[in-house]
Amino acid sequence: MANIIEIRDFSAPELDVYARLTENQLVNRADPDNGLFVAESPLVIERALDGGMTPVSFLTEPGLIRGKGAELIARCPEQTPVFTAPPEVLTQLTGFHLTRGMLCAMRRPRPADARTVCAGATRVAVLENVMNPTNIGAIFRSAAALGMDAVLLTEAGSDPLYRRAARVSMGTVFQVPWTYLPPERPWQELLHEMGFQTVAMALRDDSLLLTDPRLMRAEKLAVVLGTEGDGLAASTISDCDYTVRIPMAHGVDSLNVAAASAVAFYQLGLLSKSV
Questions:
Q1: What is the C-alpha to C-alpha distance for residues 242 and 202, in angstroms, rounded to an integer?
Q2: Whether the Cβ atoms of residue 103 and residue 38 lie closer than 8 Å to each other
Q3: Structural domain boundaries, residue 67
Q4: 56 in helix, strand or coil?
Q5: Whether pTM exceeds 0.70
Q6: Are 269 and 137 within one domain?
Q7: Could you tell me whether strands 102-107 and 36-40 are parallel, antiparallel, or unpaired per DSSP bridges?
Q8: Rg value, the chain, Cα
Q9: Rounded distance, CA 209 to CA 242, Å?
Q10: 98 and 229 share a domain?
């Protein structure tokens, strides 16, 4: 029997996760074992549950307690609170319109070790200081669709479990293994120790074309993408094994990092695995 609670008191502390805590407060760096994140939409919640995430509570429109919402709620322990109210009340509470009518607060998992995440991987993406949650979500969606086995992020980048990032990813942040790179040592060294050749996506005179046979034949590749605007740091480019550019027409010299990732992942991930 679902534990359905009609919202009557906006100040109830159980609703803080949806109404008053910021994304950074949810992370709870001071007490990571009690960190939380919020999954938005039935599809994202479903993929989070499939990925082993632990639900804390739901916030939903009444109509979603039936149908798809009922299936998700039934997968959770009976005591899991399911807070409900009409859409206009939920918008007033959260400060935004619930585009898919359902949120779920979940326990934030401990980050895995990079070696564990990359075990068995032959194609990984490295995101250096990518800050925009929408781009993070789009990159994960492309990684899942286009043959990347894992995603590694620098600590300064946006959190894949931010609500917007997870929603834009369509829940693929719970399907593609990922973690943060350890800050205490150069990450290129770690990737080389794991047998990866590193490929910097950047515009330089010595850049290879994305279709270069050496890349297609490489046993293990790490595709390195940089932050919006400035791209990769010069030191990162010089420390990578290859520098690669995407051929473009009409004098266009660059793509948004999410668009570039899709092109690179298709060529160096999906296609190269079929060679």
A1: 10
A2: yes
A3: 3-107
A4: strand
A5: yes
A6: yes
A7: antiparallel
A8: 21
A9: 10
A10: no
In eight-state DSSP terms, residue 69 is H
- Three-class SS state of 60: strand
DSSP string, 108-156: PPPPPPHHHHHTT-SEEEEESS---HHHHHHHHHHHHHTT--EEEE-TT
Phi, psi of 190 (to 5 degrees): -60, -45
CB-count burial class (<10 Å; 0-12, 13-18, 19+) for 263: middle
Number of domains in the chain: 2
Query: What pLDDT is recorded for position 43?
Result: 95
pLDDT at 99: 58
Q: Which of 125, 132, 126 is nearest to 228 (CA)?
A: 132
Rounded CA separation 177/84 (Å): 33
Domain C-terminal end among 40, 74, 107: 107
β-sheet with 81-84: strand ranges across? 3-6, 81-84, 55-60, 102-107, 36-40
Q: At what angle do helices 257-265 and 133-145 cross, to 10 degrees?
A: 10
Place of tokens 């994960």: 140
Picking from 107, 131, 161, the residue at the C-terminal end of a domain is 107
Same domain? For 82 and 123 the reply is no
| CATH number (domain holding residue 58) | 3.30.1330.30
213: Cβ contacts below 8 Å, ≥ 6 apart: none
Q: How far apart are CA 120 and CA 116, in angstroms?
A: 9
Q: What is the CATH number for 264?
A: 3.40.1280.10
The verdict on 51 and 157 lying in the same domain is no
User: Tokens 């770690």 label which residue?
Assistant: 190
Low-confidence winner among 75-89, 126-140, 155-169 (lowest mean pLDDT): 75-89
Q: Which amino acid is at 9?
A: D
pLDDT tens per residue across span 150-183: 999 999 999 999 999 999 999 999 999 999 999 8
Q: Which of 50, 178, 158 shows the shortest CA–CA distance to 118?
A: 178
Please give the backbone phi and psi of residue 69, each rounded to the nearest 5 degrees, phi first: -60, -40
